[in-house]
């Protein structure tokens, strides 16, 4: 029997075969570690840089605030902070010198004190003068006080003897006594009111009437026969009589009746709605020519 020849067996060292791969892996790991170290180092550098910037910024803010505080304190305790002058703006009803006098502002005081306490000034002036709605305080040129006076508008005047006082938009009466030459004669006059109750009732009704009708009124008379009665002298020379409780409702008939009545007529809206010519005594009593 013939024997087959023996095959040659090649011995392979697995370590030699794997060494290039292992070396590659080892190199890659080393590279990754180096890159990771670089990233960590870069991150730490950035963190240090950000912290340094933050510290510098914080220090800068503290220094800036401190400097401002020092400058502000230096200004406040220096003569520059004393009131050098007072200017009044917006006051038409009250003379500027009276506003300054009653504001309580003194030359020896600090301007900033009045800026911080402007509400007190406003309340004091409004308490003394009903014409004043409110007052705001500004400071100019370091030590000049500016008082901005806001006044209530005037809706009418009330006659007291030989003088007149303003009826303000909030329903109060102005403090100042005015001569005939000082009033706005296009505004209505409340004349002959001896009782506060009837005056307030007529004023409340007048304020509720349509604006186009109010503009036509020249005089409201307190010389009525009854407490419930209201008498108005119109700018066109007519006399209108009504009842406080129904006048606002009946005023819608006024223009129609006036067109038919003509000049110097009495338009009666108190009971029903009709008109007739005024008598000579009525014209004289209400100053209608």
UniProtKB/TrEMBL annotation:
**Which ranges does the record mark as transmembrane?**
55-77
- UniProt entry tagged with the keyword Zinc: no
Q: Which GO terms describe its cellular component?
A: cell division site; plasma membrane
Record keywords: Cell cycle, Cell division, Cell membrane, Membrane, Transmembrane, Transmembrane helix
User: PROSITE patterns, per this entry?
Assistant: POTRA
Gene3D superfamilies to which the protein is assigned, alphabetical: 3.40.50.10960
Tell me what this protein is called.
Answer: Cell division protein DivIB
Q: What is the lineage of its organism?
A: Bacteria, Bacillati, Bacillota, Bacilli, Lactobacillales
